[in-house]
Amino acid sequence: MKKVIIFASGSGSNAENIIQKYHKKEMDVVRVFCNNPNAGIIERCARLQIDCRIFNKSEWNNLASDLYAEIKNTEANLVILAGFLWKVNSILLELFPERIINIHPSLLPKYGGKGMYGNHVHQAVIENSEKESGITIHLVNSEYDKGAILFQKAIPIPQNSTPESLASLIHELEYEYFPKVILEYINQIQ
Fold first, then answer.
1. What mean pLDDT do residues 54-71 have?
2. Superfamily assignment of 3-107+136-152+178-186 in CATH?
């Protein structure tokens, strides 16, 4: 069974969705790594009995920190970013070349880049009178939201949408498609 690790910064709803669908069935979620000691993902991991490692900026920036030894020791086949807000550094990219997947709440290349996450994205989409939005699932490289696109799904934006109502629609797409794309991709890894 292939092993995955998940990086998360927030509530963890996408991570929980992936764990509930596939953990110990199609893949083994061996650990969650979280950079926010107040994140909802921590409680979700406790409830789901998944080990959650909380780390800080100092550990993330220190190439010699125990964090990277712990990541390497998971022997993961794939890294999933599920609402992880820090830029992935070169160490992680070297450890997992072409094996880090992220989901973004817009149709990249539009509305990507530093600071473009969550409601910031949805607000920008609405302010620019876009007719559609959606999700992009992509590989991670050294630039924010610039990795190879694996999958996109577009939906029309209803009239009078708010960032919150659009976020709700986008979350439905994330929950439906992110696990499927992850499973397809991990099954291609040798």
1. 91
2. Formyl transferase, N-terminal domain (3.40.50.170)
Q: Which pLDDT score is estimated for 63?
A: 75
Q: What does the pLDDT look like over 102-153, one tens digit per residue?
A: 999 999 999 999 989 989 999 999 999 999 999 999 999 999 999 999 999 9
> Is beta strand 100-104 parallel, antiparallel or unpaired with respect to 132-139?
antiparallel
CA distance 22 to 158: 32
Catalytic residue among 104, 120, 122, 138: 104
Active site residue 138: no
CA distance 124 to 122: 5
3-state secondary structure the chain: CCEEEEEECCCCHHHHHHHHHHECCCEEEEEEEECCCCCHHHHHHHHHCCCEEECCHHHHHCCCCHHHHHHHHCCCCEEEECCCCCCCCHHHHHHCCCCEEEEECCCCCCCCCCCCCHHHHHHHHHHCCCCEEEEEEEECCCCCCCCCEEEEEEEECCCCCCHHHHHHHHHHHHHHHHHHHHHHHHCCCC
Render pLDDT for 165-178 as a digit per residue (tens, 0 to 9): 999 999 999 999 99
Max Cα separation, the chain?
A: 51
